[in-house]
Write a structure and sequence with these properties.
This protein is an alpha/beta fold and about 250 residues long. It has one domain (about 5-245): NAD(P)-binding Rossmann-like Domain (Rossmann fold, 3-Layer(aba) Sandwich), CATH 3.40.50.720. About 45% of the residues lie in helices and about 15% in strands. It has 9 helices and 7 strands; from the N terminus they run βαβαβαβαβααβαααβ. α1 (about 15-25) packs across α9, α3 runs parallel beside α4 and α4 (about 105-130) runs parallel beside α6 (about 160-180). The longest helix has 26 residues, at about 105-130. One of its GO terms (molecular function) is oxidoreductase activity.
């Protein structure tokens, strides 16, 4: 799909990988809606790229529908969805006090990362399926953001790994499901990236993490994620695929 002139939605677009992707889409000529729970940051990014900010909670159907309606009123119907919003967690199954990990924490991560992504995807797909087809019968493209933790989850990452593994497992069946509507589905599983959250770690910790990556021995750049995300949109034969973007990193147990 030619990105130029298309309306695009980016969940989690106010910071990190989402912000980089929103900026790259805009650079390539897309009309970008920045969807995020943080309205202030979303407004800032949208103002920078000439897009529109839509405060929303991806786990809420009403909130997502309102954001989609606001974006469509401004940019027209979207053909590109970048599902990048997500949260992290690290809880041992058996806590230091001997008690079990809190169930609420596990449910919260699954709800945001997996259920929230599915919620955004189903609402986008239902609207996109009604659009006239473009060249080759294509109507739209959507991206999920997993993690190498889906494959190499570390100690304490049960909730996070399960949520990201769910996105990996959903990719192919959703691509097959939506093939009849001309909507492609792919997932990127990033490794260690220089996001605002990771940059909050002490510098020695950041350097240690970077040194664990075989090549290049540095943290991934958010713009590298964004470039791959946009390439997936442009390459019509990429469908139903999960792509690791990690510099050949395989995570240690802890």
């Amino acid at each position: 799909m030619n990105i130029q002139g298309q309306a695009a939605l980016v969940t989690g677009g106010a910071s990190g990988l989402g912000e980089a992707t929103a900026r790259e889409l805009a650079r390539l000529g897309a009309k970008v809606a920045v969807l995020d729970v943080n309205a202030v940051l979303a407004e800032k990014v949208a103002a920078d790229i000439g897009g529109i900010a839509c405060q929303c909670d991806i786990t809420s159907t009403d909130s997502m529908q309102a954001a989609l309606a606001k974006a469509e009123a401004k940019h027209g119907p979207a053909r590109i969805l970048m599902n990048i919003a997500g949260i992290g967690s690290a809880k041992r199954v058996v806590q230091k006090d001997g008690g079990p990990a809190p169930l609420d924490d596990f449910a919260r991560v699954i709800n945001v990362n997996l259920v929230g992504s599915y919620n955004a995807a189903r609402l986008f797909a239902a609207a996109c399926a009604k659009l006239p087809p473009l060249d080759g019968g294509e109507r739209g493209v959507m991206l999920f953001t997993a993690s190498i933790a889906a494959f190499d989850g570390q100690v304490g990452q049960q909730a996070y790994s399960a949520s990201k593994g769910g996105l990996v497992g959903m990719t192919l069946p959703m691509a097959r499901d939506l093939a009849q509507h001309g909507i492609r589905v792919c997932t990127i599983a990033p490794g260690l990236f220089a996001t605002p959250l990771l940059k909050e770690l002490p510098e020695p910790v950041q350097q240690s993490l970077a040194a664990s990556i075989p090549f290049p021995p540095r943290l991934g750049k958010p713009e590298e994620f964004a470039q791959l995300a946009c390439h997936i949109v442009k390459n019509q034969h990429l469908n139903g695929e999960v792509i690791r973007l990690d510099g050949a990193l395989r995570m240690a147990p802890r």
